[in-house]
Amino acid sequence: MDFATRMSRLGTETAFEVLARAQALEAQGKSVVHLEIGEPDFDTPEHIRRAAAAALDGGWTHYGPSAGLRDLREVIAVYIEKTRGIYVEPEQIIVTPGGKPVIFYTMLMLLQEGDEAIYPNPGFPIYRSMIDFVGAKAVPLRLREDRNWSFDVDELASLITPRTKLIVLNSPHNPTGGKLDHATLRGIAALAEKHPFTILSDEIYSRMLYGGTHESIATFPGLQERTILLDGFSKTYAMTGWRLGYGVMTKPLAVHMARLMTNSNSCTNVFVQKAGIAALTGPQGPAEEMVAEFHRRRDRIVAGLNALPGVTCTIPGGAFYAFPNITGTGMASADLARALLEEAGVAALSGTAFGKYGEGYLRLSYANSIPNIDTALGRIGAWLEERMKARAR
Ligand SMILES: Cc1ncc(COP(=O)(O)O)c(C=O)c1O
């Protein structure tokens, strides 16, 4: 069968492939510690599960509006005002099955062939995949370890051309855990005064912070109208499998995104949306406890990684990923990730799964228990030491 040529431009997320390989090894009886997948290992809080069950029993099992249930959009509008300090109307919000469709729809709505979109590299692989898929030019913006995984605003400025239609930001950041600080956001805002780009601001990890407060580019003067803000429930409320996210944008853009929803999904699952209302209006204790636990794990894994031979690791300010520098091991990232999975029983991702500037790094998700993190660190340490001894012989 002949596939449309655009299919050859579609990328993927390596995390799912590594998970499959790790599960195949487990099926052969091998033990694997899973540090590859980016999802909280906690259960969805009970009051949210109950709200979904009550909605199911209450008959919320039919189609809903493509843009999302009005009552959920009202609650999201209040939440955005509270967390970002910007006024948003429900008509500016589109509810989607997870945050990911907002990425796809943004590219479909805004990018034409020949347009350029700047995206963070290393970064969430779906940005580049979707930019390529719609036929635009993906322009990597290098994030730098020595800048705490932020970037140089002058470097960003040098990448902007008359064809630059979109800039993708992601803070807190997958895979590095970096955050964009106020000065960087101010620098981007200054560039926006000179150039007419739109911004996709992926803030899915906005509540996963270990100190400080989250700041959105949409709060800068004139930028709310030029930003599509992505957020959702997957990470904050441990709801990855439920599929619930949203985009916040101008009303004209929201009309287009709702039409894309009509064409692709019809609507987001309505009893899941009812659970989303419970998530945002109910007790926040469980979400906060989860972040406190991630904080403990972050400290443990970063200290453990820094004690390994050939490995150094900066302290991530948010999300739940460590992105250690492994250049001191003398191995390429993909080779080390493969060897750790096959020989040490630790599933981690090569930094190159997040773009070419991820070479020299691994991504380890610490959404796993402290005993499992300790086991993984022990296994990696033993494997690295064995390898060094073998090389010295
Ligand atoms: C940076 C980033 N954006 C978006 C998403 C997608 O989230 P969801 O599961 O809600 O589609 C993820 C998930 O890993 C992510 O890491």
Largest sheet: 7 strands, mixed
Radius of gyration: 21 Å
Overall geometry: globular
The distinct bound ligands, ions and cofactors come out as: pyridoxal-5'-phosphate
The counted number of beta strands is: 12
CA-to-CA gap between the ends? 54 Å
The proportion of residues forming helix, as a percent range, comes to 40-55%
Sheet with most strands: strand arrangement: 2-8-7-6-5-3-4
Strand coverage percent? 5-15%
**Rounded mean pLDDT score:** 96
Low-confidence stretches: none
Structural class: alpha/beta
Order of helices and strands: HEHHEHEHEHEHEEEHHHEHEEEH
| Number of helical stretches of at least 4 residues | 12
Describe the structure.
Strand 5, helix 7 and strand 6 (198-202) form a beta-alpha-beta unit. By secondary structure, the protein is α/β, with parallel strands linked by helices. Helices cover 42% and strands 13% of the residues. The chain contains twelve helices and twelve strands. A seven-stranded mixed sheet has the order 2-8-7-6-5-3-4, sandwiched between helices. It has a three-stranded antiparallel sheet with strand order 9-12-11. The chain has a two-stranded parallel sheet with strand order 1-10. The structure holds pyridoxal-5'-phosphate.
Detail the topology: elements first, then pairings:
Elements: H1 14-27, E1 33-34, H2 46-57, H3 70-84, E2 93-96, H4 100-110, E3 116-121, H5 125-133, E4 137-142, H6 153-159, E5 164-170, H7 182-194, E6 198-202, E7 227-232, E8 245-248, H8 251-264, H9 270-281, H10 285-306, E9 321-322, H11 333-344, E10 346-347, E11 349-350, E12 362-365, H12 370-392
The structure holds pyridoxal-5'-phosphate (PLP).
